[in-house]
Amino acid sequence: MIDDIINLLDNYEFDKEEKEEFFSFIIPIISHEEFVKRYNALEYPHHDNISLGYHILSDAMVTYKLIKNNDKYQDADLKTAVIIAMFHDLYELPWQNSKIKTKYFTNKHGFRHPIEAVINAITWYPEYFKDNQTARIIIDGIIHHMYPFPVKCASKDMEKLEINNLKVYKQLLPKYKNMIIDSSNRNRILSLSLSKSKYLEGRIVSKADKQVSLGKELKSINSLQACITGRIRYK
Ligand SMILES: [Fe+2]
Ligand SMILES: [Fe+2]
Q: Residue 100 half-sphere exposure, CB side, CA atoms within 13 Å?
């Protein structure tokens, strides 16, 4: 994984100092077994043959560069933004052809996965959520990273959402449940929330995610449709 990361950093033209800083942000995250698992393209293919972990790292690098290279993002907290990118897609199960059926269309992977990701991030990396304001910023960034695609609104019981980590959600501290509910009910339309992140860091990650996904990873209309339906056809 480290060799791939160094190659990728070279592709995005990181200098020595930037590489060191970027590594200092991500090392505690990539060493977690759940991240390692998601780096395996056979276990967690994300877009076409790119692994989920590789996609996440690409987003984190583009996020870093967007902030470093744009004066309009100078007020953003670099580390927090990179952390949001590292957590944004930590959903529970591989989504391609998972055979998991949802009762409601709006519970499909595309709408639901940011909620799964935020639950997993808080559970696997609790140290990043100790400070309440930082937690709010990270949680909001993860939840609204798909904008302008809507996200499912979370609720107290969560049974209706058909998430794959409901048991883990139930174990979260009430303050985190409330943050998830507050954030995912902003600009609510029926059971979905259509809102940008309230915070600059989250909005930058959302932009980076589009640049990475639409620019390099999603090579066909079939792959784009698959992000919502979860079904992908390999030729
Ligand atoms: Fe996503
Ligand atoms: Fe993503």
A: 16
Q: How far does residue 61's CA lie from ligand 1's centre (Å)?
A: 16
Dihedral (C-alpha) 189, 148, 83, 27: value to the nearest 10 degrees?
Answer: 120
**Ligand 2 (ion): which residues have CB within 5 A?**
89, 209
Q: Which of 50, 45, 48, 161 is nearest to 112 (CA)?
A: 161
Per domain, the residue ranges of the chain are 2-229
Tens of pLDDT along 37-91? 999 988 898 877 789 999 999 999 999 999 999 999 999 999 999 999 999 999 9
Tokens of 222: 């079939």
Measured CA to CA in angstroms, residue 74 lies from 21, 71, 100, 161, 199 at distances of 17, 5, 42, 37, 13
Distance of CA 46 from the midpoint of ligand 2 (Å): 9
What is the Å distance from ligand 1's center to 34 Cα? 17
